[in-house]
Specification:
The protein is mainly alpha-helical. The chain contains five helices and no strands. It starts with a helix and ends with a helix.
């Protein structure tokens, strides 16, 4: 409960501060979208700060959306590696698919009990982090290799 309260307050502050900035910007420039964005962000920020139960109910869903977006992004990188004929692109594809699966699972079954949710979130975060590190290492290695091959090719010409 304490962790969820802390996360809720932090998320509230993260949303509230840009909302306040948008409102201040609106009163300086009178640009209408800043008013709407500012008001909505301030309302959401206050809700997050003072209603941690709401945050705990949507947190798995938000994490699921984040994992899906990140998985799609990583899949695009992996497919780009494939397109550039990188031999070792398949682990990156598998990592991206696993991240997508984690995201879908977080959205499909977000409420299995408060304890189960926090455990599942913790497990998914560990898996996600490990897969993300692995993917970053592989991508960095392949980009470095491709860059070196490009430099060698340019020197030969």
């Amino acid at each position: 409960d304490m962790i969820i309260n802390i996360v809720s307050v932090i998320m509230g502050i993260v949303v509230l501060v840009p909302g306040i900035i948008s409102l201040v910007d609106y009163f300086k420039t009178k640009y209408n979208p800043n008013l709407v964005i500012g008001v909505v962000a301030c309302i959401i920020g206050v809700i997050f700060i003072f209603n941690s139960k709401f945050v705990s109910s949507i947190l798995p869903f938000l994490l699921g959306i984040y994992f899906i977006i990140d998985g799609i992004s990583k899949l695009q990188y992996a497919l780009e590696l494939r397109k550039n004929k990188v031999v070792n692109y398949m682990p990156s594809v598998l990592v991206a698919i696993l991240i997508l699966v984690c995201g879908v699972l977080m959205i499909v079954n977000p409420f299995g009990g408060a304890l189960a949710i926090t455990q599942v979130i913790g497990i998914f975060m560990i898996i996600y982090s490990a897969l993300d590190i692995y993917s970053a290492v592989i991508i960095k290695k392949e980009i470095k290799k491709a860059t070196e091959e490009t430099v060698v090719y340019e020197i030969k010409q």
